[in-house]
Design a protein that fits this description.
single chain; 216 residues; alpha+beta; 434 Repressor (Amino-terminal Domain); Umud Fragment, subunit A; 2 domains; 10 strands; elongated
Length: 216
């Protein structure tokens, strides 16, 4: 068999596991018509899309290229990933307005078991780039408790969300960056000073993941 025929065989196996072309297309991030074109032989996916299939289903790229994907070796791996909600973007820089939108991103099932109420927020900015790169997804474990020095997602003034290392002060908080940029400084919120914005802890950052198309 040719590589193209092997890839088609693998795609058909993955579609069978998912139960429909529509669900397979959703998981891989392509249109249903694209999948139909592949299965009818009109065209074939490019290597980047094939690599995304491998990453999505946690199977070796070689298994897809050589037609070795089966329900046994892929189906078990599918169950090892769980979709969790992406609740908005969050600044690792200056605070930005937090918003909710309908989206989901897969994380390892083990992480979901550890943090069953966790949700993801997309990181924007460079103030936490030693640990959280711009464009990555931070897994947030909801809590109002602060573990001093750990990275937390917080709301500033009720609606502006940001990630920083949080330190509880006698009468407020210090939000400290963890960045390679020395110009990004800590911000002190001292409730003893009039006009200080309120800081509300959303949760602690417990893990992060990079999207498939992340630019390294």
């Amino acid at each position: 068999m040719t590589i193209r025929e092997n890839v088609l065989k693998s795609i058909e196996a993955l579609i069978e596991i998912e139960g429909s072309k529509a669900e397979f297309a959703r998981k891989v991030g392509v249109s249903r018509s694209a999948v139909t074109n592949w299965t009818t032989g009109t065209n074939a996916p490019d290597i980047e899309t094939i690599a995304k299939m491998a990453a999505t289903y946690s199977v070796p790229l070689s298994d897809i290229l050589y037609g070795n994907v089966t329900g046994k070796n892929a189906g078990n791996r599918i169950k090892a990933w769980v979709d969790v909600p992406v609740c908005g973007s969050i600044a690792a820089g200056r605070p930005i307005e937090m918003y909710e939108y309908e989206n989901a991103f897969a994380i390892p099932e083990e992480m979901h078991r550890r943090y069953p109420n966790g949700f993801l927020m997309k990181v924007e900015g460079e103030s936490m780039n030693r640990k959280l790169a711009n464009g990555s997804y931070a897994l947030i474990d909801p809590t109002s408790e602060v573990v001093n020095g750990k990275a937390h997602a917080v709301c500033v003034n009720g609606y502006e969300a940001t990630i920083k290392r949080v330190f509880r002060l006698e009468n407020g908080y210090e939000l400290r960056p963890d960045s390679t940029d020395p110009t990004i400084k800590s911000t002190i919120y001292d409730y003893g000073k009039e006009g200080t914005k309120t800081v509300t802890v959303i949760g602690r950052v417990v893990w992060c993941i990079y999207p498939f198309d992340f630019d390294i």
